[in-house]
Structures are given as C-alpha cells and as structure tokens.
Design goal:
By secondary structure, the protein is of the alpha+beta class. Helix content is about 40%, strand content about 20%. The chain has a six-stranded antiparallel beta sheet. It starts with a helix and ends with a helix. The model has no long low-confidence stretch (mean pLDDT about 95). It binds adenosine-5'-diphosphate (ADP) and the ligand O=P(O)(O)O[C@H]1O[C@H](CO)[C@@H](O[C@H]2O[C@H](CO)[C@@H](O)[C@H](O)[C@H]2O)[C@H](O)[C@H]1O. The ligand O=P(O)(O)O[C@H]1O[C@H](CO)[C@@H](O[C@H]2O[C@H](CO)[C@@H](O)[C@H](O)[C@H]2O)[C@H](O)[C@H]1O binds next to helix 10 and helix 12.
Length: about 425
C-alpha cells in the first residue's frame, strides 16, 4: 500500500534535482526516504522540519502545507494532494518569520541557540535570499541572515566553528555570528544553520568584478590584505592546532588522491593527467618551514562582500561536496589564495572574450596586498600553481554537475597553467 510518506518521497525524487543546492544533480535520486519529520507549526499553514535521506546522503527540508497555494507560492509546490499542497516553506514569508521563535528553546529535533552575549530578536519579518547557492539563506528584518545548510553532516561544522573562534579572537573582516541551529542525528550533533549579522548594503566581489572591471582594480589589493588578516586571525584562533612543517609531501599526496577522486569519469581531464601529477609532485621539492592551519577552504569572489568600506569574508563552510573531516583539516593558507586567483580568471571570462591581462593585474594586486601582512604568495610558485590546478580540477567536476556551459573556463585554465609551467 502506498502511504502519504511514500507519495511525498516520490514527489521529492522529481523536485530535488531541480534545486540549486541539491549536490548530486548529475544523478537522478534512486532512494529518497523521509527519516525524521518534526512538526513546527500546526494549522493552516502548517510547517514541518524534515530530514531526508537521498541515496544515503542527508538533507534538511522545511515543508509547508496549505489547502491551496497563493499565486506567489505557486512555484514552491512539491506535491498536490486532496488534503492540501506540500511546498518548499523557505519561500513562505509568513512561516519563515516564525521559524526562529519556534525553534528557540526546543529540546527535540532542530534546536536554535544564541551565542553567549548575543541578543537576538526572534520575530523579525523574513524573506528568502533570491539567489540560492549551496544552501538556502533567509534575511530576517534586514538585521540577520540565517543560512540553512542543505546537506546535514554529523560532526563539527566549519562555518560555525570558524566563525565562533574568529569572533573569540576579535577578528576583523568576518560577519558576527549570533546563533546556531543544530540537531542530533543518531546521537551525534549535526549543524543545520548559522545566524549572523546581515550587511544590508553589501555587494559581493563577483558582482563588483564583473560589473566594472576597471573599478575593481583598486579593490584587489585591499582584498589581499583582508584575506591575509583573516589568515592571521585563524592562526591565532586555532593556535594549539597549528603545525609547522618543513616539507609538503603530505600536501602533494593529498593533491594526488583528490585528483583521482575528482577526475574519475571525466574524460576531458585524462589528457592532462600526467602533467597535473607532475605539477603536484613539484610541491615535494618546495622548502619550508610551512605552517598548516585552518583556512577558509572555498574562497572565491562570491564569498567576499564589500560593505561599510571594507571586505568581509563569508561562508567558511569549505567545499560543499567534501566530507567534514577534509573541510576541517589543516591546510596551507596559500590554498585560499590559489582559489581566489582562480576566481579572477573566472571573472575575466565573464561576458565574452577573456580579459587575461586584467586577471593578471588582479592577481598581482591581490598578492601585493596579501604580502603587506603575510609572506608573498608568489614566493612559493610550485605550491601556488599546484593549488590553482587542484582547484581548477575541482571546478571542472563542479561545473559538469551544475553549469556544463562553464566547464571550458577551468579546463582552459588547466591548459594555460600547465603550458606556462613547462
Ligand atoms: N553577512 C551577510 N550580509 C549580507 N549578505 C550576506 C551575508 N552572508 C551571506 N550573504 C549573502 O548570501 C549569499 C549566500 O551566502 P553563503 O554563505 O555564500 O551561502 P552558500 O553556502 O549558499 O553559498 C552570499 O552570496 C551573499 O550575497
Ligand atoms: O559558493 P559555494 O560555496 O556554493 O561554492 C561553489 O559554487 C561556486 C559557484 O557559485 C564555485 O565557484 C566557481 O564559480 C565562481 C563564479 O560563479 C568563481 O568565482 C569561482 O572561482 C569558481 O570556483 C565554487 O567552486 C563551488 O565550491
């Protein structure tokens, strides 16, 4: 007999791959199971928090239910039943405005707690951020932003852990963390969301760089200084776990392993494999001492906001597709530099013919700014190139799954970087 839960699971099988945040877009879900449903609000509309397992991976959903949907929620529908319509509740301002209040002080299912010393208004009007990315964010009264992580992973979550630690050392260039939404999955704590101060007039670096490249030129050095300042703060915040190393053989080993995992099944990468592996091996010859530390982990122009005359780094989640243990591991800070340099290349390709001279100027300005605070990234060319190539390989895999039209950008970069190094 087909139950209502089975019917909803069937509807989610069609709906999930259409969501921007759904990670495995290149695969149709095979087994969708509702693992835990917590009613948050009864009545009309009703609100449910759901943990859903999709082919063994857990996701968080907020589901609304109404007898019928008003026009502005029509696109949010997931399942129409004789008893009402189930829909994506993050689009429902009425329900989302009551979310924090409903989750505060609960003891079962999802639990929202404020940070020590933070005073949070729980009843602000809510709207969903129109640009969905790896997660879904709600803006509350233009004062807070509540990011709901879509993938639910047991263990310490880097966005929460790093923001908390950075706040504790009084770091600049990060948004203040105000609270966390967590739950337990099989007795292990898992993060569901983070509440932070919202910067209302912020513009992200990607928009700035792609709207007016000339104007952005003055910003790149300041961005480099800001990233280096956050790196110093991260080194202070996690000092006991910093380790100095003389050689980076472990890093080289990791780049090889990551390549094997990322490139599996991607024929476009096969012709580059040998040269990529040689580039990763050149890291072994680089000489330190190097310091491995906590880093941002997925730094790009979309993760930096310009507001109130300064840069703020956001989204310390690391690469969304990687396991938490990977994302929480100590890395060389040049990893963040390399991924930002990749972003200048992406921005240079935006809107037509690539402006590679601009990308080069931005790289230099960014590195100049970084070098005012920490070591000049250009002092370790083999490491920097290997890390850029590593990110470009990740990007090829990412773009194939999410934006196939963009694959040529990282693929072109691989050819170019390998060509320049040979
Ligand atoms: N503190 C903030 N103030 C203003 N806007 C923010 C803030 N944090 C995030 N945003 C906006 O929300 C978007 C998504 O946030 P992000 O943390 O990058 O989520 P995701 O993991 O979904 O990519 C950002 O691109 C930015 O435009
Ligand atoms: O922001 P997210 O944490 O979701 O990061 C993922 O998506 C990014 C795209 O939104 C992706 O970034 C790539 O595209 C950017 C332009 O859209 C570019 O600036 C970045 O350099 C490039 O890597 C990121 O890799 C991915 O993890």
């Amino acid at each position: 007999m087909t139950t209502a839960v089975d019917t909803l699971a069937g509807a989610l099988t069609d709906w999930l791959p259409r969501q921007r945040w759904y990670a495995a877009k290149d695969r149709t879900p095979q087994a969708v199971r509702l693992e835990r449903v917590t009613p948050l609000l009864h009545g009309d509309p009703a609100l449910l928090h759901a943990l859903v397992s999709v082919d063994g991976e857990q996701y968080q959903l907020l589901l609304g239910k109404r007898p019928s949907l008003p026009d502005d929620l029509a696109d949010a529908a997931i399942l129409d039943t004789p008893h009402g319509v189930v829909y994506a509740a993050t689009h429902d301002r009425e329900l989302m405005s009551r979310l924090l209040e409903r989750l505060h002080g609960t003891s079962d299912g999802p639990v929202f707690e404020t940070e020590p010393g933070a005073r949070v208004a729980l009843d602000l009007p809510a709207r969903v951020l129109p640009v969905e990315q790896s997660n879904t964010s709600l803006i509350l009264g233009d004062r807070y932003i509540l990011k709901l992580f879509r993938r639910v992973l047991p263990g310490p979550h880097p966005d929460i852990e790093l923001h908390r630690a950075l706040h504790a050392v009084g770091a600049h260039h990060v948004a203040r963390m105000l609270g966390a939404l967590t739950t337990e999955v099989d007795g292990v704590p898992a993060a569901l969301g983070i509440l932070q101060e919202f910067l209302p007039d912020a513009q992200d670096g990607w928009t700035l760089a792609t709207t007016d490249r000339a104007a952005f030129a003055g910003e790149a050095a300041e961005l480099g200084r800001s990233v280096a300042t956050v790196h110093s703060a991260l080194a202070r915040a996690f000092q006991p776990r910093n380790i100095a190393v003389d050689d980076l053989s472990d890093t080289a080993d990791r780049l090889h392993l990551r390549f094997a995992a990322l490139a599996d099944g991607i024929p476009e990468l096969a012709p580059h494999e040998r040269a990529l592996r040689e580039a990763f091996d050149r890291v072994r010859a680089a000489r330190g001492p190097f310091t491995l530390q906590r880093v941002h982990g997925d730094l790009h122009l979309g993760q930096v906001l310009r507001a109130n005359g300064r840069w703020t780094l956001i989204d310390f989640e690391g690469e969304p597709g990687q396991p938490l243990a990977e994302r929480n591991a100590l890395r060389h800070p040049l990893q963040d530099v390399a991924t930002m340099l990749r972003s200048f290349d992406y921005a240079a390709h935006h809107g037509g013919a690539a402006d590679t001279a601009w990308a080069q100027r931005m790289r230099d300005a960014f590195c100049d700014g970084y070098a005012e605070v920490l070591d000049d990234p250009r002092g370790q060319p083999a490491l920097l190139h290997a890390l850029e190539l590593d990110k470009a390989v990740y990007e090829v895999a990412y773009e194939r799954a999410h934006r196939p039209d963009w694959v040529s950008i990282p693929l072109g970069a691989i050819t170019r970087i390998l060509g320049a190094a040979s």
